[in-house]
Each structure stands twice: as structure tokens, then as C-alpha cells.
Design a protein that fits this description.
Elements: E1 3-8, H1 13-24, E2 31-38, E3 41-48, H2 51-58, E4 66-72, E5 87-88, E6 94-102, H3 105-114, H4 126-135, H5 140-148, E7 153-161, E8 168-173, E9 178-181, E10 186-189, E11 201-204, E12 210-214, E13 217-221, E14 227-228, E15 232-234, H6 250-256, H7 258-266, E16 270-271, E17 274-275, E18 290-295, H8 297-314, E19 318-322, H9 323-326, E20 337-343, H10 349-360, E21 365-369, H11 375-379, E22 382-385, H12 398-418, H13 423-434, H14 436-446, H15 450-455, E23 462-467, H16 470-486, E24 489-494, E25 511-515, H17 522-534, E26 538-544, E27 556-560, H18 569-586
Parallel strand pairs: 18-19, 18-20, 20-21, 21-22, 23-24, 23-25, 25-26, 26-27
Antiparallel strand pairs: 1-4, 1-10, 2-3, 2-4, 5-6, 6-7, 7-8, 8-12, 9-10, 9-11, 11-15, 12-13, 13-14, 16-17
Length: about 600
């Protein structure tokens, strides 16, 4: 994943591009660069490392009022100055920035080399700028169309040409790109956060569309060059939502924002005491025989939780499948199988591919997504937005909990429609979901000892999470959080599987974190805790605040508030997020920008 930004107007492009790149740095941070148009000259500066390195390298140079910028997450070629974007043509006529993958770049590179074009980098992206140079006939728009017609794969492109100062072209195909509309100035970017301090008026480009962007206006075209009437939208949050707000890191801020984010997810769906999610009006759940939840990473872990909840309440066979596996698994799907696709960004490449496979087989697709107008939302038959607000830290927190809450809402809504719960039980479940924001606020309060626990846990090189049922689903996400931000090896295991091999790894002082909140299997989990303790493990237990018996069994206990057992995944993940955060801080890790990771994985 990479971040791109373009600006044209009357302001100094250098400052606006650097500001935007700082806001996009969560999307890639191994190198960065800008190209600024100064009259009929394109000047490019790029550098390995963070945006601060680029900013220092530029200094007070680069006059000009239009340009493009890029922050890179390397896929083709190491993070070097040469491989950094923007890439410029040999004659300086064009410069481009690219997010995505050009799948046929090797064939294009060989073809262009035969025609005498020179390549400097190891990247797939450089073929784009050389294609532009090869096809250029004096018509900027026509050249863009010819060049992009040769590309296969996913891409969002920003393009400048020295013959057309002040004019940018932006192209989208299966990679995020948003246009920002200002007064006498206009923008494009991978994410609205890049220009939110300048304008809240946006246009979402659909796949296959491209835009001509000038200070005076924006013209949208389809893939054959015909003008398209755009749909204008207004962002409902402001720049402050994308700032740290006094917190040391975005991750901590976003953990603390979860009560508000959950309210935004839950409250709009509640009408006259029942859940009535907008977007599901035409979904006849009675015609669904099977549900397949598909996603990647944390969204997949939310799906594992959802599988337990939906099966329990709706009595519909449900599975959670990794999208990267489902897309290649020759899945058995039909019109009576509901596929629920989950993605925070709405641009996850594997999830999009799984959705396309599902639709090809005739299955209806419901998307649970945070970003309005994203590719996942556009492709789905039904959409439920989480309304979590911007999430800047690479490791998701509020994105995950709002996805789980949305799955809970869906399950209660579907169970009510199917009659698999009584009206009294439906009311009880609804009340429990409505109380989740307060429950999470209580979980934050009860986690006051987590920072201290992190101080004597952070030196472990490996640890295990164990739990059962929904507790096990929570373990999957807790383990991933710790790995992502602290780089400590950790694994999540269904506690009942310990004796089938895993317990061989338990040795003296081995750290085991046991989540023991699912009441129906509490005694079973207690037995598993005793088994690892007998083999010398140190145990941190996560338990209901009323369950004091674990104090005698575990070395440390983190308490969480009680709620409906089916919905425990939301409050109990909060102290695990905080544990990952504080362990990473103790170890001096770059918490918001973990190594080798990017926020949204738009490549396979």
C-alpha cells in the first residue's frame, strides 16, 4: 500500500504536498517524494526514509503551485532513492505517482526497452511514465488513455506533464482515489485525510474512471473518454479527528475513541427499540440457507466472532473464511448463500477478489465497511457502514470493535426476522448491544493495571493466548495486535487443543494469556490454566470483574465488565489492545507505523 496526493491551485504546492504526505504516512513510510511544476519545468525530489527526511532534503526549494506526492510501501524493489516515487520520464516531460500493482509490467518493460526507452528503477511503476512518454502526441488526455489502456492490475495514478502546467490527471482502477474540491484549488489523494484541512467536498472515482484536475475545476471521464456527471459528497468529520488530540500515539487515541465510535455504529440502526439497519431493506434473510463471512487480518477475526454469534442466534450454518484462501478455493456458493465481506478500508485486494468470485457464482454479498464509496461498498449488493471515523494507526482498534458490533447487530436483526429468538430475547440482546459503548468505557477504566503488567511482560520473546469459543476468537485478534506493534512472537490457540500438541511448548516462565470470560466454558478454561501453570507457565488471566476466583490461579488478572456472553468480544479486546500498545512502547517500537506493514493491503 502507498499514499498519493496531488494539488493544483494558487498555494505553494511544496507545503501542501508535504502536509498531505504526513497524513498519508500510515499507508507507507519507507520512502517518499514530490514532483512540483514550476512553469514548464517539473522538479522532483525523493528520498528513502520518512517524510521528515524528504522535507529536510527539499529545504526551501521547489517553487510552484501544482504537483504530486507519494509515500511508499515497497513491493517491487528495495526502499531506495531510485525506487522512490515520483518517477519521471527521461526527457522530464512526465512524472507519475502510483499506488497498486502493474501485473504486466515485465512484458511492458521489455517492449519499451526494445523501443529505446530507458529504465532507472526496479519498480513496476516506471513502465507507466515510459508508456506516457512513448505515446505522447501533444494531447495530454489522449496520451493518458492510450497508456492506461495497456495496464493490467490495480492502480491509482497521479500524472503531471510539463507542457500543461497546473493540470493534473488522476486515474483509478481497483485502488483508492478521491478528488477534493476547493475554491480555486483542487486535490486528489488515496485518502481524504490528506486534504481534509483544506476541503470537505469530495468526489469518489469509480474503477475505470479518470479525472482532469485544474485550479478552476475537475472533469471526470469514463474509460472511453466520455464525460461523466460526478456525485459530490461532503465529509462529516474534520481535521481534528485525524490528529492525535494530545495522545502520544494514534493507536492510543483510537483505543480511547472506541466508546464514541461504537455509538456511531449502533445508535443510527436503532428504531423504536429494535434494530433496523439501513441497507438491508431488500435482503430477504429467510431465503438464505448458509452464510460465509470473508475478510483478511483483523476483519477476519471479527468474522470469527460473527460466526459464533450468527449461528447461535440465527441457526444458519456460518463459516468464516480468509479471503485470500476463499478466492482460490473453488467455493461452493449460490443464490441462497449470503457472503458477508468485511474491510475497514474497503480496498482490500483479496476481499474484493473473493467478492467478485461470490458474485460470479450468484451469491448475494453484504459488505461491512468503514469507508463510504470504497471499492468494497461499490461492489456489494448490500452495505452496512461502521461509521468508525478515520483510523490512522496501522494496527486497527476501533475498526475491529465496530465491525464486531455491526455483526452483532446483523445477527439480532436476522434472528428477529427469522423468529429464532423470542421478542423478549430480542429486546434483551438489543439492550446489551446498546450498552456496549458504556461497557467499553468501563473496560478502559478497569484496565488501569495493564500498563504496569506490560512493564514486566515486555521482555518475553514468545507467548501464547488461549481461550474457548468467543474467548478464542478474541485471542486471535489479541495475538495479532501484539505481533503487529511489538514484534513479539505470539500465537492464539483454542484452549482445548493444548493437550493435542501445543502444551509441549510450555516451559518454565513461559507467558500465557488466558481469556476466561465465556461463562459456559469457564470451568474448562480454568482447567487449561491449571495445566499450563503445572508446567511452569506465568499466566495473565482476563476475567469478568465479578470473578475473583482467578486471583488465586493466575499471576496477574485483568478484569473486564460483564455483558451478554455473545457480545463479550467487544469489551474484552480493549485491555488486549492496551497491553499490545504498552508492551510496544516499553520496547521502543514505532507503534503507529510498524515495520513492513501498511494500513490497507491493496495488492495480493
Amino acid at each position: 500500500m502507498c499514499g498519493i496526493i496531488g494539488y493544483t491551485g494558487k498555494g505553494r504546492a511544496r507545503e501542501i504536498l508535504i502536509e498531505g504526505l504526513r497524513r498519508l504516512e500510515y499507508r507507507g513510510y519507507d520512502s517518499a517524494g514530490v514532483s512540483v511544476c514550476d512553469g514548464n519545468v517539473i522538479r522532483t525530489v525523493k528520498s528513502q526514509g520518512r517524510i521528515s527526511v524528504l522535507d529536510e532534503k527539499i529545504g526551501d526549494e521547489l517553487p510552484g503551485t501544482s504537483g504530486i506526492g507519494h509515500t511508499r510501501w515497497a513491493t517491487h524493489g528495495a526502499p531506495t532513492d531510485t525506487n522512490a516515487h515520483p518517477h519521471a520520464s527521461a526527457d522530464g516531460k512526465f512524472a507519475i505517482v502510483h499506488n497498486g500493482i502493474i501485473e504486466n509490467y515485465e512484458a511492458l518493460r521489455e517492449e519499451l526497452t526494445r523501443h529505446g526507452m530507458k529504465f532507472q528503477s526496479e519498480t513496476d511503476s516506471e513502465v507507466v511514465v515510459n508508456l506516457l512518454d512513448y505515446y505522447y502526441d501533444g494531447d495530454f488526455k489522449n496520451t493518458v488513455m492510450k497508456a492506461t489502456s495497456r495496464l493490467e492490475g490495480s492502480y491509482a495514478l497521479g500524472i503531471v506533464c510539463s507542457d500543461f502546467p497546473g493540470t493534473l490527471f488522476a486515474v483509478r482502477n481497483m485502488s483508492p482515489l478521491i478528488i477534493g474540491i476547493g475554491a480555486g484549488e483542487n486535490y486528489f489523494a488515496s485518502d481524504v485525510t490528506a486534504f481534509i484541512s483544506h476541503t470537505k467536498n469530495i468526489i469518489h472515482l469509480d474503477d475505470g474512471m479518470f479525472a482532469k484536475v485544474t485550479p478552476d475545476g475537475v472533469t471526470i471521464y469514463n474509460s472511453i473518454g466520455a464525460k461523466v456527471r460526478p456525485t459530490y459528497e461532503k465529509v462529516t468529520w474534520d481535521a481534528e479527528a485525524a490528529e492525535k488530540g494530545g495522545y502520544e500515539h494514534f493507536m492510543l487515541k483510537e483505543i480511547m475513541e472506541q466508546p464514541r465510535a461504537l455509538e456511531a455504529t449502533i445508535n443510527p440502526r436503532l428504531k423504536e427499540g429494535k434494530f433496523s439497519p439501513e441497507g438491508l431493506e431488500s435482503l430477504d434473510i429467510s431465503k438464505i440457507d448458509r452464510i460465509v463471512i470473508t475478510a483478511c487480518g483483523s476483519a477476519y477475526h471479527a468474522g470469527v466472532v460473527g460466526r459464533y454469534v450468527i449461528e447461535s442466534l440465527c441457526r444458519i450454518p456460518t463459516t468464516a473464511e480468509l479471503a485470500s484462501e476463499l478466492r482460490y478455493a473453488s467455493p461452493i456458493l449460490n443464490e441462497r448463500t449470503l457472503v458477508i465481506a468485511i474491510s475497514q478500508s474497503g480496498e482490500t485486494a483479496d476481499t474484493l477478489a473473493a467478492m467478485r468470485e461470490a458474485k460470479k457464482l450468484g451469491a448475494p454479498v453484504l459488505a461491512i465497511v468503514n469507508v463510504v464509496g470504497s471499492s468494497v461498498a461499490s461492489l456489494a449488493d448490500y452495505v452496512l457502514y461502521t461509521w468508525a471515523g478515520p483510523e490512522i494507526a496501522v494496527a486497527t482498534t476501533k475498526g475491529y470493535t465496530t465491525q464486531v458490533a455491526m455483526l452483532d447487530i446483523f445477527a439480532v436483526w436476522a434472528a428477529g426476522k427469522l423468529g429464532t429468538v423470542t421478542p423478549e430475547r430480542e429486546a434483551e440482546l438489543t439492550s446489551a448491544i446498546v450498552s456496549l459503548p458504556a461497557c467499553v468505557q468501563r473496560a478502559i477504566y478497569l484496565a488501569s493495571n495493564v500498563e504496569e503488567i506490560a512493564k514486566h511482560s515486555h521482555k518475553h520473546s514468545s507467548l501464547f493466548f488461549i481461550g474457548r469459543n468467543i474467548d478464542y476468537a478474541c485471542c486471535l485478534e489479541a495475538s495479532l495486535k501484539l505481533k503487529e506493534v511489538s514484534y513479539i512472537h505470539s500465537e492464539a490457540y483454542a484452549a482445548g487443543e493444548l493437550k493435542h500438541g501445543t502444551i509441549a511448548l510450555i516451559s518454565q516462565n513461559q507467558l500465557v494469556i488466558a481469556i476466561a470470560c465465556y461463562e459456559a466454558l469457564r470451568e474448562k478454561t480454568m482447567s487449561n490454566i491449571q495445566q499450563v501453570k503445572a508446567r511452569g507457565a506465568n499466566v495473565i488471566a482476563v476475567a469478568h470483574e465479578t470473578d475473583r476466583s482467578l486471583i488465586a490461579e493466575a499471576d496477574d488478572v485483568i478484569f473486564v465488565p460483564e455483558t451478554e456472553p455473545l457480545f463479550m468480544a467487544v469489551p474484552q479486546i480493549v485491555p488486549m489492545q492496551l497491553l499490545a500498545y504498552y508492551v510496544a512502547r516499553e520496547n521502543g517500537c514505532d507503534i503507529d507505523k510498524p515495520k513492513n506493514l501498511a494500513k490497507s493491503v491493496t495488492v495480493e
